[in-house]
Write a structure and sequence with these properties.
- The complex is a heterodimer of chains A (127) and B (205).
- Chain A has 127 residues and is mainly α.
- Helix content of chain A is 83%, strand content 0%.
- Chain A has a domain at 1-44.
- The longest helix of chain A is centred in the N-terminal third of the chain and has 21 residues, at 2-22.
- In chain B, helix 4 crosses helix 8, helix 6 (142-153) packs across helix 9 (183-201) and helix 7 crosses helix 8 (172-179).
- The N and C termini of chain B lie far apart (77 Å).
- Chain B is globular and about 65 Å long.
- Chain B has 2 domains: 9-116, Rna Polymerase Sigma Factor, Chain: A (Orthogonal Bundle); 133-205, Winged helix-like DNA-binding domain superfamily/Winged helix DNA-binding domain (Arc Repressor Mutant, subunit A, Orthogonal Bundle).
- The chains are: A mainly alpha (127), B mainly alpha (205).
- Chain A binds chain B through residues 2, 5-6, 9-10, 12-14, 16-26, 28-29, 31-33, 35-36, 38-40, 42-44, 46, 50, and chain B through 25, 28-29, 32-33, 36-37, 40-42, 44-45, 54, 58, 61-62, 65-66, 68-70, 73, 133-139, 141, 143-144, 147, 163, 166-167, 194-195, 197-198, 201-202, 205.
Chain lengths: 127, 205
């Protein structure tokens, strides 16, 4: 008896539900059709095109990473100065160690001695 | 010569994967269109019964359609129905959870409180339309009204099992796939739902 009653409830509820589905108003039907068309438009797009839709996001992310990298690079002047100092230090060392420069100094030593003793070398207004 | 032409023609057909892919996509799109057209109104009613709001139900159905089309359109069409209803049920549950959180938050704020039964969440819902539609007339029907009320009174999992099995005609395996649970759980939920509905509707039906 209870099984029969349950079958009756299943059947009656199914009939009522089907009627309510069939009697949906035009506004709802129209909205559902629009939603279906939007979904189909997505399904018809090839996967490559769907990937392209994300291209601006990927581009922005790449630009952001590049920007941060550059900003970090510029925002550490100590490190930059240190590298510049070390570079100029190497240049000085090269000049000091260069044999050519020492030879030049030895060749012109008499010239430097003469120019040191000449009156023109004295500062203006001292005599 | 003619056999060579036939062979050549077949070779040309085999050697055009782009055309094959296009045909497949077109056929697939047509099948998906038919599937969604067949299921959209039933999905809407299922969501409307659970959410009590037509606009929310439309949003959830649209979202389910888009997700199915985006992620599962290439799957065999036999898998679409349980997949679609699983997406739909997840969407319904998410929205119900958000509504619950919002109600809790609103309870802390001063001002008029929402109806605890959720029957009149929006004052405009109670304003009669100029001309009642067929659905409105049907909704006024006592039997349908009682059925919806009883379905809403069921725990969510029991309601899902009952609607998928009884209204959508899914078998136990399909329902289990749609609900993301075991077949044993589906049988238990369904049995309890039918029993509860019998108790609630016996007096009015």
């Amino acid at each position: 008896m209870s099984d029969e009653r349950e079958r009756d409830i299943e059947r009656r509820s199914r009939v009522l539900y089907d009627e309510s589905v069939n009697n949906l108003d035009m506004r709802i039907r129209s909205r559902l059709t629009q939603a279906r068309h939007a979904a189909l438009a997505i399904a018809e797009k090839p996967a490559s095109v769907r990937w392209l839709a994300w291209a601006p996001v990927y581009g922005a992310a790449a630009a952001l990473v590049l920007g941060i990298t550059l900003w970090i690079g510029h925002s550490t002047p100590d490190r930059v100065l240190a590298s510049a100092d070390s570079r100029s230090g190497f240049e000085d060392l090269e000049i000091v160690a260069s044999n050519d420069q020492l030879e030049l100094l030895q060749d012109d030593i008499e010239f430097y001695d003469w120019i040191d003793k000449s009156p023109a070398a004295e500062p203006a207004g001292s005599g | 010569m003619s056999s060579f032409a036939t062979l050549s023609n077949r070779w040309t057909q085999w050697d055009d994967p782009a055309a094959d892919a296009k045909d497949f996509a077109l056929q697939n799109s047509r099948e998906l269109d038919q599937f969604l057209a067949h299921i959209e109104r039933r999905a809407f009613r299922m969501a409307q019964v659970a959410l009590r709001n037509a606009d929310d139900a439309l949003d959830v159905v649209q979202d389910a359609m888009l997700k199915l089309a985006r992620s599962y359109a290439a799957r065999p069409s036999e898998e679409w129905r349980p997949l679609f209803f699983r997406i739909l049920q997840n969407g319904i549950r998410d929205l119900q959870r958000r509504h619950t959180v919002r109600r809790r938050f609103m309870a802390w704020l001063p001002g008029p409180k929402e109806d605890p039964d959720g029957e009149a969440q929006n004052p405009l819902d109670n304003v009669a339309d100029a001309a009642p539609t067929q659905t409105d007339v049907l909704m006024q029907d006592q039997a349908m009204h009682q059925l919806e009320k009883s379905l809403r009174a069921l725990p969510a999992r029991q309601r899902e099992a009952f609607m998928l099995r009884n209204f959508e005609g899914m078998d136990v395996a399909e329902t289990a796939a749609a609900m993301g649970c075991t077949e044993g759980s589906v049988k238990t939920h369904y049995s309890r739902a039918v029993h509860a509905l019998r108790e609630q509707l016996s007096e009015v039906w």
